[in-house]
Amino acid sequence: MSKDKNSYKRIPLFAKKQQGTVLITVVLIAAFIIILVVEATKTVTYQKLLSTNLINRDQAYSYLMGMEELAKIWLKKAFEETKAETVNLSQPWAQDDINFPLDGGGMMATIKDMQSCFNLNSITQPGGQNQGGGNTKGGGNTKGGGTAPVPSPTGFAQETPGQKVLEELIEKVDDKTQITGKALATAVRDWIDEDMEPAGPDGAEDSYYQGLEIPYRTANNSIAHISELRAIKDFNQVIYELIKPHVCVLPEKEVNKLNVNTIQPDSAVLIWAMLDSPDISLSDVTQALGNRPEEGWEKIEDFMAEFKSAPDAASGLFDVTSQFFEMSAKAEIGKTRVHMKTLFKKDADNNFKVVSRYFGRE
Predict the structure, then answer these.
(1) Secondary structure (3-state) at 243
(2) Angle between helical axes of 161-173 and 181-192 (0-180°, round to 10)
(3) Residue 97: phi, psi to the nearest 5?
(4) Which of 192, 226, 302, 328 could form a disulfide linkage to 297, CB 3.0–4.6 angstroms apart?
(5) DSSP state string for 11-61
């Protein structure tokens, strides 16, 4: 029997199917390996970037701590060289920003007088003999210093000088709000004071905040950061942004005098609110700041003389010197940025002590 000479070259159908399966398997394995390589490369790149950022962050932190020590030395030297009785914007600490170049980046710092704004924590300080506070701590056994609040005819505690200042400030920067400055100032006082009794009909203690959808309690202590205002009754973002440039928080409630030598013209509305006189306009305050001597006023009486009808009681809310200063610093290394704010307190010997430190932008 003769055989077809091409019979040995024929490939069975099942063999062809196996070849197709093998090809698909090889392609799938190759695709899987490629995916593994890509993912492994991404992971390595991510880990490398993360490590670099962590190293840069720690390095930037170290630089900022060094800047903090340098600022203390610089402030001490600046005040010792000037030997001035006042604190004013002509002194070296208030000059241009401090800039330092770094390998792969740089560092910048500015210093601000923290008594050129209204200290929210002073809102609980009573008036009377110690009105204006200064550096004198109130007597008595009342928590938070000062004397016991005197009830008003309505049965609530009388308004404090700080409460009236905040009330006027809110009314002057936002005259279109449906929420009164009096109500907001009362809520701030209740947030800070240590009692559980509302300071007015618009006050808010624990009973109000615990009735919210997400309940919490009042601080019953000093405000730690200005952003804490957003947790207080009726303080919306609009009002917060309007008063933010004019207010600050200091750890000492007794410090409630505004340094008229360092306040910027942009915050003239704060002085206007503190004077609280119908005979004084915002333009009068702006003009007075424009007449400020280069080295500032030597005495409060010189500042008050700028106004024809300034109330005598208002002079107790102003000063020409300061104790608290804030350094705002930023270190940038590569693509990593670290922001830090340090609050210093100056003593009688021009030594500066770190009171608080805050990382992050406001």
Answers:
(1) helix
(2) 140
(3) -60, 150
(4) 302
(5) --HHHHHHHHHHHHHHHHHHHHHHHHHHHHHHHHHHHHHHHHHHHHHHHHH
Buried b / exposed e across 165-182, counting CB within 10 Å, b at 16+? bbbbbbbbbbeebebebb
Q: How far apart are CA 121 and CA 354, in angstroms?
A: 19
Query: How large is the angle between the packed helices 268-275 and 282-290, nearest 10 degrees?
Result: 120
CA distance 341 to 292: 29
pLDDT of 124 reads: 92
pLDDT digit string, tens, across residues 335-347: 889 999 999 999 9
Return the amino acid letter for 86.
Answer: T
pLDDT in tens, 215-235: 999 999 999 999 999 999 999
Q: In this structure, which CATH number among 2.60.40.10, 3.30.465.10, 3.50.50.60, 3.30.1300.30 belongs to the domain 48-114+324-359?
A: 3.30.1300.30
Q: What is the pTM of this model?
A: 0.79
**Amino acid identity for residue 165 in this structure:** V
CATH topology classification for 123-245 = Ribonucleotide Reductase Protein R1; domain 1 (1.10.40)
The torsion angles phi and psi of 222, rounded to 5 degrees, stand at -60, 150
Contact by Cβ (8 Å): 110, 97 = yes
The neighbour count for residue 225, using CB atoms within 10 Å, is 13
> In the chain, what are the domain boundaries?
48-114+324-359, 123-245
β pairing state of 336-346 and 324-333 = antiparallel
Query: Do 200 and 167 touch, CB atoms closer than 8 A?
Result: no
- 28-64 exposure pattern, b = at least 16 Cβ within 10 A, e = fewer: eeeeeeeeeeeeeeeeeeeeeeeeeeeebeebbeebb
Lowest mean pLDDT among 108-122, 143-157, 228-242, 313-327: 143-157
The contacts of residue 346 (CB under 8 Å, 6+ apart) are: 75, 79, 322, 323, 324, 325, 352
